């Protein structure tokens, strides 16, 4: 039985961190994981440990103008007044453009499929949506999507194909409110399970109580942990972080409870 997980939340809360550690966790359990980066500024590859020289050469699918043209019949930006294919061929894209991170883990950098954020790139957006739709319908062990900040990215037609949303938030009232809004939207669109990840948590007990009262679904607290930032500064994969990282430990045990 396949598992399709979308990691969502507002900007900078830790979506990419959670998506990469979840991908490592599930792939180390023997699941075959396909991680999708659908951010307009993709950076999941670095967190998954791809060397910077390789990462800098990745062209997100929706930004690959010749691929977009080959598959839709129109170049990005050329959509006005042009007809383009709404059902482009996508079934070979994972095999051709997927990047193998380890035996059980592959990455596909799709880029943003949010037309509002991309301006008018209709052929590219249509290719991206067709691709994600295809991937979500295929039989796979696990799909982990690192999504763009916000919630609207996966509207009706795609959202309901996910089994689970991990909604990442920080402890501030504003962040919690946004997380609840994103979670509500996910549920309304048909995502069955929503779990909050309260990231960068201070450890303060009264704060923990306040947060637990605020949130309307199962949630896990992940401590603030400078070693994540240090790994990022040093350009190291999050995989190299071990049991000495409190955040990694807490996330592993959260994943264990949710998916184990
Ligand atoms: N538990 C934590 N403790 C301390 N720092 C953290 C923690 N989790 C994530 N960070 C740091 O917070 C920053 C943002 O994390 P990340 O890139 O995962 O967020 P994001 O939600 O994907 O951001 P964006 O919206 O820009 O894609 C990074 O520098 C990351 O190292
Ligand atoms: Mg991110």
From TrEMBL:
Gene Ontology CC annotations of this record: cytoplasmic side of plasma membrane; cytosol
A Pfam cross-reference name: CbiA
Keyword field contains ATP-binding: yes
Keyword Nucleotide-binding listed: yes
InterPro entries in the cross-refs: CobQ/CobB/MinD/ParA_Nub-bd_dom, CooC, P-loop_NTPase, ParA/MinD_ATPase
Domain CobQ/CobB/MinD/ParA nucleotide binding: 5-237
Gene3D superfamilies: P-loop containing nucleotide triphosphate hydrolases
Single Gene Ontology MF annotation: ATP binding
Keyword annotations: ATP-binding, Nucleotide-binding
This protein's name: CO dehydrogenase maturation factor
